[in-house]
Amino acid sequence: MGVNIRSAPRAEAAHEPRISRRTVLTGSGAALVVIALGSTRRADTRGVFDPAGGQAFAPWTDWQAEGQDVPIALVSAAILASNAHNAQPWLFRVQDTSLDLFEDTSRSLGSLDPFGRELHIGLGCALENLLLAAPANGYEHKLLLGPDPADPGHVATVALSPGRAEETELYSAIPHRHTNRYPFDTSRPVSNSSLTTLGALNDEPDVRVHWFTSRAERDRIHELLAGAAADINADPEQSYDNGPRWLRQDKQSIEHHRDGLTLDTMGLAAAAVLAAKMLPDPGPEEAGRAWLASVHEQAGTAGAFGILAVRDDRDRAQRIRVGRIWQRIHLWTTVNRLAAQPMNQLHERADREAQLGLRPEYGAALEELLGDPGWRALFTFRIGHPTQQAPPSPRRPVPRVLTT
Ligand SMILES: Cc1cc2nc3c(=O)[nH]c(=O)nc-3n(C[C@H](O)[C@H](O)[C@H](O)COP(=O)(O)O)c2cc1C
């Protein structure tokens, strides 16, 4: 998964001042140049001055607001979870002593996720946050993974009862966890002890964590990711679902949708973000090329890659357990000042091959990478030392994700 970015002008609107891409990219004086040219209104509507301001980002600061009923406090934590393309494919039913989680398939990633793999992993991430929030709010929980035979969209029931209050460091990290798409610091390898501790966060017998740390392994995954990203670009449906479908380019659309991917979260250098916000939209081909370049940079600076594998990649409960482990891993990296980013292009192409009956090029590559007969690769990510802190992404507020 990833996103096509706005990187260069296609045509200049008549009322825009003439600002060339080069002018904007000249470095730290860029903002001054743009403002001096009289584009403050555009800068404002594009969120240049206050990228993480506005109600769309309030759930990151309000998540522990005083006076919330306990089940609502748990949902406030759940909605801050990692989820593919920030589509937020979840709905919650809140009762006095229990919560139910449902999938919202209207928020599927379509051709990028034809079998619901990413959708279910994201639900697992939300469930993990929710379960971390239960003891922090003084509740014990009992988890029952669905579905309810009467409702295939029902994913899980969490029964709550008063218990010992316990606030873990993973729980406290919930509002600080953000996907980091910047290059990582290649001068600092991820220590073996970090990888061992991360692996030990997996307590599910039907999930395995595989690490790829050697130069040769990382180069091989880099090469595969670049190939898969190019193939996504070349597939018109996947290219649309990867880019324009979930891209929120300006403040108004961020505030309206409160989901999706924003220019600020794409890991671009500050001057490039400014250029992307201020200049007219690029065409799809140029946007695709820019996205490919960022996948190259991200994959090329991974400290390590991890792949989460399961016995049966079509089993919803196993996917949800992978989501729980990924969320836990990402929270642990947050506590320990490491950076992390899912990179799911290989799986997205493998699923697409299966959907269209194509030769399983990426399916076979994943099997070969894993080299673990009887296990199926479900989710890939990179970790490393950050070069920059990642910003938050928008979230729909709790009332918008409640159902009856
Ligand atoms: C199943 C799944 C797949 C994802 N795949 C990618 C990916 O391929 N590339 C990427 O940059 N982020 C990927 N992400 C991260 C999401 O885009 C990210 O969690 C979402 O935009 C919300 O942002 P946040 O994690 O900063 O809160 C994935 C997340 C999940 C759960």
From TrEMBL:
InterPro entries: Nitroreductase-like, TAT_signal. PROSITE patterns: TAT. SUPFAM superfamilies: FMN-dependent nitroreductase-like. It comes from the Bacteria. Residues 385-404 are annotated as: Disordered. This is Nitroreductase family protein. It comes from Brevibacterium daeguense.
